Predict the 3D structure of the following.
Amino acid sequence: MNCLTPSFSVNDRSALILEGGGMRGVFTCGVLDNFMDRGIRFPYTIGVSAGACNGLSYLSGQRGRAKFSNIDLLEKYRYIRPYYLLTKGNLMDFDLLFHTFPEEIIPYDYPAYARCSERYEMVTTSCRTGEACYFEEKLDPERVIDIVRASSSLPFVCPIALVDGEPMLDGGIADSIPFERARSLGYDHQLVVLTRNKGYRKEDKPSWVPPFFYRKYPLLREAIRQRSLLYNQQLESIEALEAAGKVTVIRPEEPIVVGRMERDTRKLSDLYEQGYACAAKLNITY
């Protein structure tokens, strides 16, 4: 919306769609904190990767939790380091992120999440099929962590995760912006939160997958190869729907300087504030 769309009316067919984008997801943290400050909820929310992580704090009503995890605790614990690729096989310290943080340092309110009446889905990509998988879970904390961890497991720099014993990776491989999933469930009145500026596109060609990665999973390899093309197609569709007045989009106003694995907390704080400000300019009614 480039911070200009005046209003959005929430009804029983409304969906909130949360794109991923790694550390660019702090933009979404700002959007969701603004929504929590105004008591804004949606009957259905779906999140991918970083969007899935941030959506959990939104559904449990823990205002500021996602920002604290992504900015304050990053500065303190430096949980993104190339060193971890050697020691943990992961660019990020997932033990810290998905166990120590939610269990000890900034506890996740599982009872509040279980009590909320709104639907919440998180997206992963099946290594076996290369297709998107959509999970809802509110009652089993261990399974919640399994799902969000898988949704956030970026190819090449994170190990394959397991959900119900099945190998999974980042949901953004197969469905970066799951507006069609929401539509298929009847939620066709959509507010989409993107983490790139309007007009952004990835390089429009298949991605190269090193031959030594994921040899057991040829369909996953093909999904990774086609990821940029699919993502660009999704952006084209969303911009067309937006122009027709059929979806509302909140996105950064300008090309952002925050990388997927950004560690500069000043840049991250600025992007968080942009997200909060963009959301504040949208008049949401019921």
Observations:
- Residues 139 and 218 are 34 Å apart (CA to CA).
- The first helix runs from residue 26 to 37.
- Residues 1-5 have pLDDT under 50 and may be disordered.
